[in-house]
Design a protein that fits this description.
Blueprint: E1 2-3, E2 10-11, H1 25-41, H2 47-68, H3 76-96
Helix pairs in contact: 1-2, 2-3
């Protein structure tokens, strides 16, 4: 982490993650904090912002699958719908997440 004296803002370099879905849950928690910190200062629509947002989504998609597993007695088509709705919820949660409200 570096601090620039002219603007007094933190610059965080995001790690390159080849396959975010393979990140261990413990590591995903720490990396998520790092990515959320970076999202707070990036301008929406930039390639860096998209990388951070997409990586967060991919790292946390296992949570959606875990929650959907509670409905495993459903048909395959219904399971796909549940995962799809959960993924949309995850994306909305990431877009609305406010790191300053974390307890």
């Amino acid at each position: 982490m570096t601090v620039t004296e002219a603007t007094e803002t933190r610059t965080v370099v995001l790690p390159e993650i080849a396959d975010p879905s393979k990140v261990a849950p413990k590591d995903a928690r720490e990396l998520s904090k790092l990515f959320f910190d970076r999202l707070a200062v990036l301008e929406e629509g930039t390639p860096e912002y998209q990388y951070a947002r997409n990586t967060l989504i991919e790292m946390n998609i296992t949570l959606v699958r875990f929650a959907a597993a509670r409905f495993r007695s459903r048909s395959q088509d219904e399971m796909e719908d549940i995962v799809q709705v959960g993924t949309i919820g995850l994306i909305k949660a990431i877009d609305r997440f406010d790191l300053t409200r974390e307890v």
